[in-house]
Amino acid sequence: MTKGARQPFRTAVLILVWGWLLMLVLAPNLLVVGTSVLSRDPAEFIRLPFTLDNYIRLMDPLYLDVFLHSLYMAAVTTICCLIIGYPFAWALSRVSKRRQTLLVFLLIVPFWTNSLVRTYALKLLLATNGLINNALLAIGVIDEPLTLLYTELAVIIGLVYLLLPFMILPLYSVFDDLRDELLLASHDLGAGRWSTFVHVVVPLTLPGVLAGVLLVLLPAMGMFYVADVLGGSRNLLVGNVIKNQFLDARDWPFGAAASVLLTVAMAVLLFAHRLSRRRLGEEGG
Amino acid sequence: MKKLALTGLMAVTLVGCGSSEPQVLNLYNWSEYMPQEVLDRFQEETGVQVIYTTYDSNEAMYARLKLLDDSAQYDLAVPSTYYVNKMRKEGLLAPIDHSQLTGFNNMDPELINLNIDPDNAYSVPFLWGTTGLAYDADDVEGEPAAWADLWDEAYQGRIVLTNDMREVFHVGLRVLGYSGNSTNPEEIEAAYEKLADLMPAVRTFNSDAPRMPYLEGETDIGMIWNGEAVMGKEDMPSLEFVYPEEGVIVWLDSFVIPKNAKNIEAAHQFISFVMRPDISALISEEIGYATPNLEARNQLEAEVANDRTSYPTPEDMVNAEFQEDVGDEALQLYNKYWELLKAGR
Question: Of A147, A261, B220, B263, whose CB neighbour count within 10 A is largest?
Answer without folding.
Answer: B220
